[in-house]
């Protein structure tokens, strides 16, 4: 299937699903799109029991997209830049300590707690999943997803301070999550061990390298944008900036998300003048780009179900993973607050726990796992976690916030 056909079909499907959601379901965008996509996927699988033609055609289309590469190599830079572009740096600066703790220490704690608890549960249920693969699964699902978080936060009424913390954490925790993923994967692969020196080198390369490239290219883009008023040229500069970040960060093997976030914060917080019409258009166009790519991404997440017929074999592990992850999230939020900040607010804890959503990045990471006897189990369980997170947590987040705020007021 050629590229033009793939893009055309994908855009048409996204348009139809978006229209159906607005006219019939009337759910928040991300939740509605994923829900419709899953319903269509289930319907296709049911029809496939009697007619394999339709199912095979959809599977062929899904395979031709290559979800992992499309998200990680193409869409991620644009989505992260767009998310950071509209983020208020001053608010982020005010909440820098909790954001830093949750995006670093919180991810590490969550990975360890999730891996340990899941391993204990597998022992109790008498099915074998080695501890290293439990930890690897934890590294995949512990970082909150900036795309899912941003999409859901739009329709919630979370207090501004917590909103900043949740959004800031999701923007910066991918670097730590990726490092943990690579380290644990190296341990799981007995042919390649990972020394302490290699861990430090990986951290410096991925995290600091990503931030440095984002600073350099972001500052360059900001200076170029401030020298002109032509909207077309300004927009082209911003597009070139994101593409350049993706290519250069990939060449130097540094974190694309951190580079894009850093550049987006610089350009969005320094280049935008609310009195300048060109700047206003730039802000609105990047919001449109963000919404369009989100639409495509969440439809792709739902349609991935057609590619996972083995879900029926691992649904118990998937449900267990959801519960274990929620416990790990509570501990990873509460522990830094109690030990380092010396305070713990139960209302804030409930909101921070329930708003820690997982999304397409977790699925993309799971899809990059090498072939092993545990790959399908982790991938299927990860899919359960993501779908539960986007649909159930997304739909109930508003209610959780209302209860927490009411309890805090009392």
Main features:
single chain, Na+/H+ antiporter like fold
What proportion of the residues form beta strands (DSSP E)?
under 5%
Q: What's the pLDDT, averaged over the residues?
A: 87
- The SSE order reads HHHHHHHHHHHHHHHHHHH
Structural domains: how many: 1
Low-confidence segments, ≥5 residues, pLDDT <50? none
Any idea what the shape is?
globular
Task: Indicate the structural class.
Answer: mainly alpha
Q: Treating each run of at least 4 consecutive H or I residues as one helix, how many helices?
A: 19
Strand runs, count:
0
Q: Which SSEs are present, and which pair or pack?
A:
Elements: H1 3-25, H2 29-47, H3 52-65, H4 67-85, H5 89-94, H6 96-103, H7 105-124, H8 131-141, H9 146-153, H10 160-172, H11 174-188, H12 196-226, H13 231-251, H14 256-270, H15 277-303, H16 315-339, H17 346-354, H18 360-367, H19 375-409
Helix pairs in contact: 1-2, 2-15, 2-19, 4-13, 4-14, 4-15, 4-18, 6-10, 7-8, 7-16, 8-11, 8-19, 9-10, 11-12, 12-13, 12-14, 13-14, 16-17, 16-19, 17-19, 18-19
Structure description:
Helices cover 80% and strands 0% of the residues. The protein has 410 residues and is mainly α. It has a single domain (3-409), classed as Na+/H+ antiporter like fold. It is globular. The longest helix is centred in the C-terminal third of the chain and has 35 residues, at 375-409. The N and C termini lie far apart (60 Å). The mean pLDDT is 87. The protein has 19 helices and no strands.
Give the gist of this structure.
By secondary structure, the chain is mainly alpha-helical. It has helices at 3-25, 29-47, 52-65, 67-85, 89-94, 96-103, 105-124, 131-141, 146-153, 160-172, 174-188, 196-226, 231-251, 256-270, 277-303, 315-339, 346-354, 360-367, 375-409. The chain has a single domain (3-409), classed as Na+/H+ antiporter like fold (Up-down Bundle), CATH 1.20.1530.20.
């Amino acid at each position: 299937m050629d590229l033009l056909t793939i893009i055309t079909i994908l855009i048409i499907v996204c348009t139809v699903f978006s229209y159906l959601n607005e006219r019939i379901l009337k759910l928040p965008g991300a939740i509605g799109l994923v829900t419709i996509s899953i319903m269509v996927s289930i319907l296709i699988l049911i029809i496939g029991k009697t007619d394999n033609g339709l199912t095979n055609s959809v599977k062929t289309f899904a395979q031709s997209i290559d979800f992992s590469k499309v998200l990680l190599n193409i869409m991620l830079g644009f989505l992260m830049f767009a998310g950071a572009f509209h983020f208020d740096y001053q608010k982020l600066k005010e909440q820098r300590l909790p954001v830093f703790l949750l995006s670093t220490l919180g991810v590490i704690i969550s990975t360890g707690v999730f891996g340990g608890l899941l391993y204990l549960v597998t022992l109790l249920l008498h099915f074998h999943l080695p501890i290293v693969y439990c930890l690897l699964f934890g590294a995949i699902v512990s970082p909150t997803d900036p795309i899912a978080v941003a999409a859901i936060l739009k329709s919630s009424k979370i207090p501004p301070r917590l909103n900043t913390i949740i959004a800031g954490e999701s923007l910066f925790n991918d670097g730590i999550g990726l490092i943990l993923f690579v380290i644990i994967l190296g341990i799981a692969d007995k042919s390649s061990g990972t020394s302490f020196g290699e861990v430090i080198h990986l951290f410096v390369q991925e995290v600091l390298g990503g931030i440095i490239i984002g600073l350099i290219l972001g500052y360059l883009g900001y200076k170029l944008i401030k020298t002109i008023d032509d909207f077309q040229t300004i927009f082209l500069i911003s597009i070139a900036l994101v593409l350049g970040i993706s290519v250069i960060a990939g060449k130097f093997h540094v974190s694309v998300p951190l580079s894009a976030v850093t550049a987006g914060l610089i350009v969005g917080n320094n280049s935008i003048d609310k009195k300048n019409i060109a700047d206003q258009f730039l802000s609105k166009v990047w919001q449109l780009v963000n919404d369009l790519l989100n639409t495509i991404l969440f439809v792709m997440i739902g349609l991935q179900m057609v590619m996972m017929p083995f879900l029926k074999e691992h649904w118990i592990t998937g449900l267990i993973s959801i519960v274990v992850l929620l416990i790990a999230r509570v501990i990873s939020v509460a522990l830094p607050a109690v030990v380092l900040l010396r305070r713990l607010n139960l209302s804030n804890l409930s909101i921070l726990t329930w708003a820690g959503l997982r999304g397409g990045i977790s699925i993309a990471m799971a899809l990059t796992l090498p072939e092993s006897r545990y790959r399908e189990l982790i991938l299927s369980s990860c899919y359960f976690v993501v779908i539960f997170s986007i649909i159930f947590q997304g739909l109930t987040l508003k209610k959780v916030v209302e209860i927490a705020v009411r309890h805090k007021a009392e």
